[in-house]
Amino acid sequence: MGVGEDVGEYVADAVRVVRASGLPNRTDAMFTSIEGDWDEVMDVVKRAVAAVEARAPRVSLVLKADIRPGVEDGLTSKVETVERHLAHGDGRPRTDE
């Protein structure tokens, strides 16, 4: 914030940090999701914020955590589950599952 309306290059700085971390991640139009151990993820978040902070006078961050021990590959499996339900076609909730 404080750098005008076009913030893409600043967001890219943060996403570079996330991608370099080696943790599973996904970036879409509104968010970058990261999956991993709490301490590892929070370290990446801290470094991503610092990367933006180095160039912008203000950083805005929205953080949402889904803490589910034992769950891995949630970035992919959650989307696959939704796609499987969409593939059933008629858009109505299934009652047989």
From TrEMBL:
InterPro entries: MTH1187/YkoF-like (IPR029756), Thiamine_BP (IPR002767), UPF0045_domain (IPR051614). This is Thiamine-binding protein domain-containing protein. Belongs to the UPF0045 family. It comes from the Bacteria. One of its GO terms (cellular component) is cytosol. NCBIfam families: MTH1187 family thiamine-binding protein. Residues 2-83 form the Thiamine-binding protein domain.
